[in-house]
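WARN no homologs supplied; continuing
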Amino acid sequence: QVQLVESGGDLVQPGGSLTLSCAASGFPHGYYSIGWFRQAPGKEREGVACISVPDDMTDYADSVKGRFTISSENAVATVYLKLHSLKPEDTAVYYCALNFLQDLTFNSKEYDYWGQGTQVTVSS
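OK structure emitted
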């Protein structure tokens, strides 16, 4: 079955950087979309970036545009989210999610598979 495994979350100081990874497995073809979402305590889950594979079309939420970069390495079915200029308000559990529609969407209901999440904490 389809599995998504996130990694790379950590404690980082404001202004710092991190790279999150989302490794996908359990499906035979290379046509899909990955969305990165985050959820902070007491807040709703929000989409921050998404990418369609293999054409690498991307979209970003306004709150992270210019600071976060999403990319894919299709040969190993892995999508990365590079986080730069991190702020305390970026603190959240970050999830990746997959759909086979190749849609660029931040609607969580359009994603069928989810990872377990990785914690990003931005604090001095």
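The chain has a mean pLDDT of 95.
OK
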